[in-house]
Description:
Elements: H1 5-8, H2 14-52, E1 59-62, E2 67-73, E3 78-84, E4 87-92, E5 96-101
Antiparallel strand pairs: 1-2, 1-5, 2-3, 3-4
Amino acid sequence: MFITPAFAQTGAGGTNDILMSLLPFILIFVIMYFLILRPQQKKVKDHQTMIGALRRGDQVTLSGGVIGRITKVVDDTTIELEIADNVRIRAAKQFVSELRSKSEPADEK
Length: 109
């Protein structure tokens, strides 16, 4: 015979073989979640918190590199920036990449 007894034997543990073949994919997904997805979700959450707290007088940097001071919060999605003396532009809040300095709250007297 050409088939040896070792090749002729089959195991009944098919479920164990499937689990062992899927284990590397599960481990890769878990590693990707903790190294890539979770930090990205935290970064997006922090950015949304920063955008929600923007107010007049804050100095910000836009994603294009423009630095300016907020003169007016127009609505939930738009702000007005003063980038030089008497030069004002409107920008979407989502393009604010960094809050450079926070303005002090006004004293209520």
